[in-house]
Amino acid sequence: MSEPSHRRRLLVLAICCMSLLIVSIDNTVLNVALPSMQKDLDASLAGLQWTIDAYTLVLAGLLMLAGSTADRIGRRKVFMAGLVVFTIGSVLCSLAPSLELLVAFRMVQAVGGSMLNPVAMSIITNTFTDPRERARAIGVWGGVIGISMAAGPLVGGLLVDSVGWRSIFWINLPVGLAALLLTFRYVPESRAPRARRPDPVGQLLVIALLGSLTYAIIEAPDSGATELLVLAGIALAALAALLRYEPRRDEPLIDLRFFRSAPFSGATVVAVSAFAALGGFLFLSTLHLQNVRGLDALHAGLWMLPMAAMTLVCGPLSGRLVGSRGPRLSLLVAGTAMTASGVLFAAFDAESANTALVAGYLLFGLGFGFVNAPITNTAVSGMPRAQAGVAAAVASTSRQIGQTLGVAVVGAVLASGVGASPYRDAFASAARPAWWIITGCGVVVLVVGAVTSGPWARRTAERTARRLEKQEARTAAEVRA
After folding, report:
1. Which of 25, 117, 119, 149 fits 70 for a cystine, CB–CB 3.0-4.6 Å?
2. What pLDDT does 434 receive?
């Protein structure tokens, strides 16, 4: 297949970014709508957590399966299927008559979403073969998250205040349908040179691990010690089985050899930490602005605009910086800014003063804007192109695990302090430990980013890539023989 023209590559990037837009804006819009959902559906704080975590949990459990399936049967094919399922799930969410059905339909959305982001990133990786162009494309990709953060609270607030929370799911329909038609017309089909076999046992172990862990954290304030011990035992058993089973397979769901690369392992830890901070930050901010300050959804969205604007500006800037100077500087800026933002809220009660609140939002947006490009670029650039889908899926899975754990842990800490329904007098003191958790996530981004982006780390990435390529070549030769 001939190399696509520059204009065609940009068009493919734009189409892939549309899929990221509907997935990302869905999360930001949902956060603004949480208080309205709570009143309309008579939901507890744990119920609000599940509307977010049911989606991210299913997404995290299926991303690696979707990535390897796309490499095997065709990336465009899986990408289009994801757009269809996600759009149908959005329609069902808008019609949900109860919290339980809303959570179930969010899981349908997640099945479709699992086929979008890692597959789109794999398409981008195989379309932009030049490392500098790829880094810039990934920077644009990260900037789309900023667009979703900027547009989501405003659009969501306007829709919630004027039409109702159900309307937030309608915005996925036109974007999803347009992306579907454009993908069919312009995105070329691609797949890995050799098909990887499915790994159903590994898939079930991943779902058991993530599901039991998340359920234990969210339900911890209302569960007994016996139930929590059982869930913790299931999570530990699934993790032990996964670590024992996967290395024995020729084509595992999670190729643990990837983690011999220090930059790849670092990118995974940074992704979990950064998105845990994001999930907790948005959850706390939304409840504070609407339930404590008493703002409506639109004005709450306006208050969060500084954070979104910084993410929008810094995403492409970070991509260019990664392309020209590597990931180290971006990771240092990201970790420092996210840590500083957390300290403002945890130690100085930034939410109590307007100026400090805006400063905290600006710092967090700056840090989050810089963190996306180095995560994605590091995850896919050091791996063989034939395994781009799997590598991108691991990075995307790390993001979703982080966001799931962030909402679960922060929500559980908040619930233990204020009960089922947040109220003004107790919210600030109950939220302070949660803000320290977010601060800790920023410190992890800073330290791990600094340690795993040096020259020695790059050498481990090069050795890992060579080993993977040799193993792939041996396996392909055995198949041909």
Report:
1. 119
2. 93
| pLDDT over threshold 60, residue 421 | no
pLDDT at 481 (0 to 100): 58
Please give the average per-residue pLDDT across 333-362, as a whole number.
Answer: 94
Q: Any residues with CB less than 8 A from the CB of 412 and at least 6 apart, and which?
A: 217, 218, 220, 221
Whether the predicted model's global pTM rises above the 0.85 cut:
no
pLDDT tens-digit map of 455-464:
887 788 778 7
Instruction: Identify the CA nearest to 441 among candidates 396, 393, 475, 402.
Output: 402
User: Position 204: which residue type?
Assistant: L
Give yes or no for residue 441 having a pLDDT over 70. Answer: yes
Extract the tokens encoding 358: 């805006």
Confidence label for 69 from pLDDT (cuts 50, 70 and 90): confident
Sequence-ordered list of residues with C-beta below 8 angstroms from that of 140, at least 6 positions apart, any chain:
13, 17, 315, 316, 319
What is the spatial distance between Cα 397 and Cα 56, in angstroms, rounded to a whole number? 9
Query: Is residue 18 a contact partner of residue 182, using CB atoms and an 8 Å limit?
Result: yes
What type of residue is 111? V
pLDDT at 1 over 60: no
